[in-house]
């Protein structure tokens, strides 16, 4: 958004004890970041939070200082809840997006299993109150939107992709020197990387290797598990990697595996698709919207290591021409997730266009024309006149 000429302010918990407001550079763009005083959540390896009873005070100060045209919150808890309440009081246009699945963090609450369903119900009830304040509510995929409407009791949730810069990735359709399976993401419980490790034990006869890129609280545990399963020489845990190293891993891999069961979209899967990779993914949450079974990869029964191994073997042992056909379909399907399309849709919401109008152009991975090709086209963005009535254009606006 900053690259498109907007004055962007981001409000987040401080990543350490140091807090305050300053400029930060992301992707070559400078944005203003308000880092609020925060505290580390001990059961998690990096999660930090703002005290709920202080969040509204912080948001009040920032809103009165910035006087934004629109507020876009990314989750409905703590900062999201606080800024939504204060923005509504000031008559500021409010857009809400849900990126958070309580299932992704509930294991870090230390609550016994018997109480976790109760926590989930309370969380969604509280989130619903915040999301209802917004003029429009979005989430990354149609499956996630349906889930949010069912569980959160909301209506007309828009599916707008998180988006990636498709051109940043390079497809490698030539013969690969090794059969390499790649996983990218947080190394945490909900990703079910242990299932992927178990599947890899069934693929030793074809010399398949596994690369795991990403860090998280289970990194050491899974490294130990890999050794105990006899994968010490066939599984590499890279930890956090640079963008350049990540793109190289995508290009050099043969297939991407995503065993997670709680994906609202999966940026990593889209990056793999933009790299021309076939994908083998769990048939859970939003992954079936990205992986069309038999077209750009295969779905497997969540948690079933044998089924995952069979699907990986199918991709790794097929002729190169067939594997490339899957990869090229990945590359075609991911085009509708290009970041510029996403930004255009959000700009329309920011400028006051009704959600019902934006919905007609929002991402729906299964919305195809009769000939089976994804709908394409350029979205023309309306420009908004200044409220003063002078007719002066008001771009950029915060």
Automatic annotation (TrEMBL):
What the entry lists under Gene3D superfamilies is as follows: Glycogen Phosphorylase B
| Record's keyword terms, sorted | Glycosyltransferase, Transferase
Q: Where is the Glycosyltransferase subfamily 4-like N-terminal domain?
A: 2-164
Report domain Glycosyl transferase family positions.
177-328
Q: Which parts of the sequence are annotated with region: Disordered?
A: 357-398
A Gene Ontology biological process in which this protein takes part is: carbohydrate derivative biosynthetic process
Which molecular function term from Gene Ontology is one that the record holds?
Answer: hexosyltransferase activity
> How is this protein named in the record?
D-inositol 3-phosphate glycosyltransferase
Q: Which organism is it from?
A: Pseudoclavibacter chungangensis
* Lineage of origin: Bacteria, Bacillati, Actinomycetota, Actinomycetes, Micrococcales
């Amino acid at each position: 958004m900053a690259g498109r000429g907007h004055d962007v302010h981001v409000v987040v918990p401080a990543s350490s004890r140091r807090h305050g407001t300053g400029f930060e550079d992301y992707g070559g763009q400078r944005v203003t970041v308000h880092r609020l005083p925060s505290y580390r959540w001990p059961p998690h390896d990096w999660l930090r939070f703002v005290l709920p009873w202080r969040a509204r005070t912080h948001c009040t100060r920032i809103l009165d200082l910035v006087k934004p045209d629109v507020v876009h919150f990314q989750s409905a808890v703590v900062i999201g809840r606080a800024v939504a309440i204060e923005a509504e009081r000031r008559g500021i246009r409010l857009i809400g997006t849900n990126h958070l699945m309580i299932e992704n963090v509930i294991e870090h609450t230390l609550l016994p299993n018997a109480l976790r369903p109760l926590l989930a119900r309370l969380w969604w009830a509280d989130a619903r109150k915040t999301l209802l304040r917004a003029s429009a509510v979005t989430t990354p995929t149609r499956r996630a939107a349906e889930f949010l409407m069912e569980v959160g009791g909301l209506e007309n949730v828009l599916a707008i992709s998180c988006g990636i810069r498709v051109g940043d990735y390079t497809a490698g359709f030539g013969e690969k020197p090794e059969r390499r399976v790649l996983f990218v993401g947080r190394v945490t419980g909900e990703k079910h990387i242990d299932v992927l490790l178990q599947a890899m034990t069934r693929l030793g006869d074809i010399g398949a290797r596994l690369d795991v890129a990403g860090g998280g609280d289970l990194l050491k545990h899974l490294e130990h598990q890999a050794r105990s399963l006899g994968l010490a020489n066939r599984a590499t845990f890279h930890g956090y990697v640079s963008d350049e190293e990540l793109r190289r891993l995508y290009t050099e891999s043969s297939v991407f595996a995503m065993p997670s069961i709680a994906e609202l979209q999966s940026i990593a899967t889209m990056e793999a698709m933009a790299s021309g990779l076939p994908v083998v993914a769990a048939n859970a949450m939003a992954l079936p919207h990205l992986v069309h079974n038999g077209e750009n990869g295969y779905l497997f029964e969540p948690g079933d290591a044998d089924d995952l191994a069979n699907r990986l073997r199918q991709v790794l042992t097929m002729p190169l021409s067939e594997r490339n056909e899957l990869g090229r379909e990945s590359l075609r399907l991911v085009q509708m997730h290009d970041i510029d399309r996403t930004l255009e849709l959000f700009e329309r919401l920011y400028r006051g266009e009704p959600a019902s109008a934006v919905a007609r152009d929002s991402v729906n991975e299964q919305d195809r024309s009769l000939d089976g090709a994804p709908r394409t086209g350029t979205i023309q963005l309306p420009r908004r006149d200044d409220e003063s009535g002078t007719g002066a254009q008001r771009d950029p606006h915060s």
